Amino acid sequence: MRKKYMGYIFPSMLSFLLTGIYSIVDGIFVGRAMGDPGLAAINIAWPLVALIISLGTGIGMGAAVIVSLNNGAGDEKKAAKSDGNALFLLFTGSLILTLALWLFGTPFLWLLGAKDALLPLARTYLRLILLGGIIQVFASGMVPLMRNRGASFYAMCAMALGCISNILLDYFFVLVLDLKLMGAALATVLGQVLTLILCIAFYVKKKNRIAFSNIRPDKRTILSILKVALSPFGLTYLPSVTIIFMNLQALKYGGEEAVSAYAVLAYIISFMELLVQGIGDGSQPLLSLSQGKGDKQSLKLYTKWTFSLGIGFGLMGAIIFVLVRNLLPAFYGTSPGAGAYIIYATPAFALVMALYGLTKPAVSYFYATHRVVRSSLLVYGEIALTLLFIFVLPLFMGLDGVWYTIPSVQAILGICCILFLRK
């Protein structure tokens, strides 16, 4: 069982790790080419860009859970229907979202804090990303579906190809051709194109093909997918919602240098968040299948391994983060003022890393075992607490209140996770 479990977990971890690299590599190259304005522009635009990836991940994970539960219960017909309807949802969802962001992206960016010189920079980045919006939704949504079919290693390879090409293209477009934000956006889209090509190649094979009759929308199937999808969508997108309000408050209490510093800190903790989410989502097929079969012994064992890995990586990441904090400003090319903020706030964000090892796998565990109420409470409760703390704490603590918002929220969620798991 351990070998089977690791066969799912490590490719998933690496896939999410590569997703984390996607989210930080643009910032590294743009920061070196443009400094604080480039970093701030990407960080302000990122909540809108992240909607694309989160939509695909939410639908893909939601469908994967339903497929595994039906397979575990022996209902292969419903499982096949869920697989097909996931493709329908990915297509229609990507069209609606891309069109909405294209039409209303500029006012949204303004509301998110992109004013004066930052607005055209953020708009350029967003518009070019949207040109490949449908591609990115399918690439992020098909990876969990492939992993759910036992093709975890292949899914990892698809992600790896896109990530490596993104890094190389970022270097060429941003630093060599000096395309700045335009180059970063083009590199991201082209990297996702390569990932999608491998995803399509997987489904072209006869044994993996999805019948057209299963793609035809079925109301009950769609609703069951969307019900579960709310949690993985929220889990993936929540950091971007947090970024919105953290940017606004950092700008208010610390100026552009504080926004630039938070951009770097957000990149680092998102890296750990995706890594531990990879542990949780990698265990999803086995947890869902065991739940569907009613195999409580296997479910308990897989759960124990999942939380042990998550907590272990969270603690290790927190320690490393604190030890290398003095190197981060030079690595990202920030100004001295932003660098000072990064070094000062690192211990608070290291605590966030440690707590992620518990809270993120817990959410994955709950929706994988179809306890969608608990997973939704954790996901959307996090949003509610963040909105409360980000406006209240700075009133008493100034900029320190901004830095300590996320640690405070994660501490409360950690207590809730323990109570839910004990129950």
From TrEMBL:
The chain crosses the membrane at residues 7-25, 45-67, 87-112, 124-146, 153-175, 181-204, 225-248, 260-280, 301-324, 336-356, 377-396, 402-421. Keywords: Cell membrane, Membrane, Transmembrane, Transmembrane helix, Transport. It comes from the Bacteria. It holds the Pfam family MatE. The keyword tRNA-binding does not apply. GO terms for cellular component: plasma membrane. It is found in: Cell membrane. It is a multi-pass membrane protein. GO terms for molecular function: antiporter activity; xenobiotic transmembrane transporter activity. The keyword Transmembrane helix applies. This is MATE family efflux transporter. It comes from Parablautia muri.
